[in-house]
Design a protein that fits this description.
It is built from 7 helices and 5 strands. By secondary structure, the chain is mostly helical.
Amino acid sequence: MIGIDTNVLVRLATADDDGQTEKARRLYSSLSASDQGYLGLVALAEAYWVLRSVYQKPKAEILTFIDRLTETKEVAIQDAEVVQLALEASAGGADFADALIACSCKAKGCSRTVTFDQRAARSLGMELL
């Protein structure tokens, strides 16, 4: 298994650096069900933030990119069920990173997730502190 950092995901999504993009594509093409790439929650959250904030990519495009990664046998996703729930919540209007937090907490049995973020409280049922 090969761990994949945020910047590799960003190259795959943006193709903004020819040399790095080619290396990222070669790596991705070399992955298989028996030699998978691994994506952690932090890398996914960072990639979402970078693509949204720095590259100004539309939210739907980023969610589709992440969803495609979760559907392949060549990539293992940390807490894949949580990521899927976060994608669904985000498609419904929530911020993806906030949804990852809320869904992760719920999956671990937290009775509530507290926040100062009014939007997260409203869209994800977090409790305002």
